[in-house]
Amino acid sequence: MLRSLLAQVFRRRAPASAPALRAARQGRADSVVFVANMEAPVRVGPDARLRSDVASVRLRSFLAASRLATSRPVYLLPPDLLADEPDHEGLASAATVVVTKFSTSELLAHSQRFERMLAWLAGARGRVRLVADLTDNYAALGDAEGRPFLERYQRMLGECCTLTVPCAALLEDLRPYARHGIHLIEDPYESPRALAPRAVAGAPVGLCWFGQLGAQNIDSVARGLAQAASGLGGRAAELRLVTHASRRDLADEVARRLAQAHPAVATTFIPWSLEATWRAIEASDLVILPQAHDDRWGRVKSHNRLVESIRCGRLAIASPIPSYLELADYACVGEDLGRGVEWALANPGAALERLRAGQEHVSARFSPGRIADAWAALLAGDAPPAFSPPDSGTPVRLNLGCGDKILPGYVNVDVAESRAGRRPDVLCDLRALTPFDTASVDEVLAVHVVEHFWRWEVVGVLREWARVLKPGGMMILECPNLQSACEALLKDPAGAAGPGQEGQRTMWVFYGDPAWKDPLMCHRWNYTPQSLAAVMAEAGLVEIRQEPAQFKLREPRDMRVVGVAPPR
User: What are residue 278's phi and psi, to 5 degrees?
Assistant: First the structure.
């Protein structure tokens, strides 16, 4: 499909003559080559309109290619050309080669073609910068379906290339494959404007599902839509089901199963296009996003469909995969999609509040400009090192989630670009400390940070923090003491329950200071000294002990718990 679309986008070009190729190569060593699913090579112009019906291709490869084409030569080349035409003008001047997404069906149908590509990558290592963008865990599907080539393909890319991924869950899964490092670059939103948020408008209730429908997900989609419909309480509803025209038979099968379970739900099939998707979301009340979250293949999908739903102003009822859980403040994310629909119908005001906050968050975090900048810096080699270790013998100490508290003697790290005008030394997601090598850090300090993670994700977060610690390195966590807050509230229930300073030792502990008016500053779980020690032990730390708190209000409101990284 990508091949036919590319043919519509680019004007045909006459083959370049040999002198022209030699002239193009002279003095040029900065081209970027994207290895893509296409039949013929194309040079991307700065005004090229690249289109694909595969979201990860549009949101990642084409976004990066378009941005880079404004400053350097950029080429889209088929895999075969790497081995067959090493003198092609793009390869001859290449500084960076990027392997883009290929579908599993393409990989399996043409495995010899990709074996040749892997051999070329192995030979090119050290001569050019090699990057592979992985948006799925191929090995997981290979294991489930008995297709060993998929695992080999993923492993070989990790041995040859720096990896890029769209979400923290996939980063964690692929870290063992990443011999040359791994970078998290999220998917941007696509819709050109944010639509006004809207709660359920009336009857029938408008539902929308959009995405790629195939043999791997038809069962989970059909089950999830039926479960969501169970929350309608017998109300009539219309489902707009948006997928590629070639999947009409699968869409009809989903509609048949849904009608069998819930006769009051009528399904309208809409052939996919970006514009058709946006219109379908706008015409609906709720977006339903079921996802198989209990298998290695389904749980590592990116944020992009939930982000697009929020951008379009409609509440999403979504399965609890890790990427969706990161945005749970702005949607209904949970095991039971029917209960999510029930909540949305019963709480339209709260749903609108979630959407308004979500659109602000999405606008800042997932803007195409910000993400294109990240791709351009990585692929053009212009990005400064995210972290440069000090001279040997100097301890490396991280201050994670630093906010505006920039500590001397520490590498101050945060996901926010600045707070109160103070910028961190290193900008990265605290769930994925990709700038720091394993066993490279002497101390990890996190002051009033751990309570901002969901309980279900905190062990994985602490394991990531423990990963960067040297054996014997210390992890120091300071946070509010839940036991102290409960005792203070019970001592003065009337006076200590307010949102202002009177709640600093009580309500702020439970929920965070409301004066921030920032979802990132809300507390998502609280701990006693014993429960925090148990979580740290589960993350693999040893010699865990409580010490006097040294920051913020200190005892009795706050506590400090320290653990040590064990020998590896």
Answer: -65, -40
What CA–CA distances, in Å, run from 444 to 61, 132, 498?
35, 30, 34
Measured between alpha carbons, how far is 552 from 479 in angstroms, rounded to an integer? Answer: 9
- CA dist 134 and 100 (Å) reads 7
- In this prediction the pTM is 0.69
Can you tell me the distance from the alpha carbon of 288 to that of 275, in angstroms, rounded to the nearest whole number? 19
- Report the percent of the chain where pLDDT is more than 70: 92
Cα radius of gyration (the chain): 25
Other CB atoms within a 10 A radius of the CB of residue 223 amount to: 17
Contact 180, 161 (CB under 8 A): yes
Q: Which residue has the higher pLDDT, 373 or 303?
A: 303
Token pair 């006004």 in the structure block, residue: 196
Cα diameter, the chain: 86
- pLDDT-derived band of residue 350, with 50, 70 and 90 as boundaries? very high
Contacts of 11 (CB under 8 A, 6+ apart): none
Average pLDDT score over the chain: 87
**What are the tens digits of pLDDT across the range 181-208?**
788 899 999 999 999 999 887 889 999 9
> For residue 555, with 0-12 CB atoms within 10 Å meaning exposed, 13-18 middle and 19 or more buried, which class applies?
exposed
Strands annotated E in 323-409: 332-333, 397-400
